[in-house]
Sequence to fold (282 residues):
Amino acid sequence: MRRHYDTMHCEKYDAFTGKIREEKVRLLKAAFAKQRNFFLEINKSSEDSVRASFVISKTIAKSSQPFTEGLFVKECLVKASKILCPDRKKVFEGISLSANTVACRIMDLADNVQKQLIQMAKDFEAFSITLDESTDVSNTAQCAVFIRGVDCNLNVTEELLDLMPLKGPTTGHDIFQGLEECIERAVLPWNKLISWATASAPSMCSENVGVVGCLKTKLNSLNIPGISFTSIHCILHQAALCGKSLQMKEVMDVVVKTINFIYAQGLNHRQFTSFLASMDSV
Fold:
């Protein structure tokens, strides 16, 4: 540094002495700090824009809106900034909210949530699994896997563990194979599985070809002492079976007839609405 000063700056700054030299050094330091803060502010502004992009993308996903809504939200923010804070307009314009960006943000958030769930699952003393399989609008079978776990402090965690697309057949073996991969990715020990809830489809509850049968075969092959689990139907299926057995036809006929009468004519509906309002039941 001394050699660089003697070579490049000696003639310019040696003329300053005493208080004048101290003031010159102070000005040089202030100019350097201003230059450094300029780049720090740019970096902070960029980080804030990315953070805002994540927050808005999360809101779009939670409200079940299409990813293209991000561009509409950005347009609203930019127009609002022109009125409220014109000097900050560039900051709002720097928020990336294209459909692809929103999709990537949501995927990053989903990966982070899944990592947190896997980390929490390491402390589970026991857990149960629920399966629900359905076909989406693109004719792809989607199997949702829900987990409910409890740790040593009796803290209960209930989350969507995974959503498995089934491209081919949806037999019990195919569903169990996807479930097996899902549980292994989450590093969940089989010996802590204590309960299992499924629908009544043969591919789910059959003891021979269903997921329940495949699970029992899997647990028996592990040869872990004391391992056992309970297989139950979902609550909605139990309610449906109960409804079929109770023979509530007389009650339901009156309810259906009343509803049909109310919606048969607009006048009936308006009068019924006014009646509810008069009874403070709306």
Observations:
- The CA atoms of residues 78 and 90 lie 9 Å apart.
- DSSP finds twelve helices and five strands in the chain.
